[in-house]
Amino acid sequence: MKKVAFVTGAGQGIGKAIALRLAKDGFAVAVADYNAATAKAVADEINSHQGRAIAVTVDVSDREQVFAAVEEARSKLKGFDVIVNNAGVAPSTPIETITPEVVDKVYNINVKGVIWGIQAAVSAFKAEKHGGKIINACSQAGHVGNPELAVYSSSKFAVRGLTQTAARDLAPLGITVNGYCPGIVKTPMWAEIDRQVSEAAGKPLGYGTEQFAKRITLGRLSEPEDVAACVSYLAGPDSDYMTGQSLLIDGGMVFN
Questions:
Q1: Pick the catalytic residue: 107, 152, 180, 241?
Q2: Per-residue pLDDT tens for 117-139?
């Protein structure tokens, strides 16, 4: 039997790369996304390459939807082994511009979405009568506060804390909990951050990227596949003795 992985925000960007990589690794994949059309496109791509995937529509900020989506994946794919709580948003939020609306939006998706994913996964693992792996999207911004990203950065610090606590609480159930912390990845989400930062500085598009890229030791932006490779390790057997960690996969932006 193929192991089953459930990936949120898998319709584009890093999530799509993760779904494709895990399918290549031999997982049956539930491609979960808020956007039904992009989720279906990714699932179709996996299925057309001899993989096995289904598309699941879910708003991760809604606890009931997350539980329903995980249960749908478990029943249709006949199992449940790994959840990747990848979905996230990252609006630019200079301190004085922060509104209640933006705080609610970011925390509902980036923090509550991870909590609901963790809970739904535990429920699914128990139903399958075995442990499993929970993998959460953190960020280098969850290790070091990033300028003009106060709300996003603080949400990712929260994810790192959740990952540590859940690892301690869930170890007796045979469940490991880890995170992955990308740097600056070439995705639609990053293009939007670049636009906001560049415009705020009164500079042309690409200025924000250029400023951030100066901080990357390896001197290049990340491809989504770089991050997917880290998640592949966390989803596979080689990381069985690791829990509570949030691995930096950022080209050398943050050193602890």
A1: 152
A2: 999 999 999 999 999 999 999 99
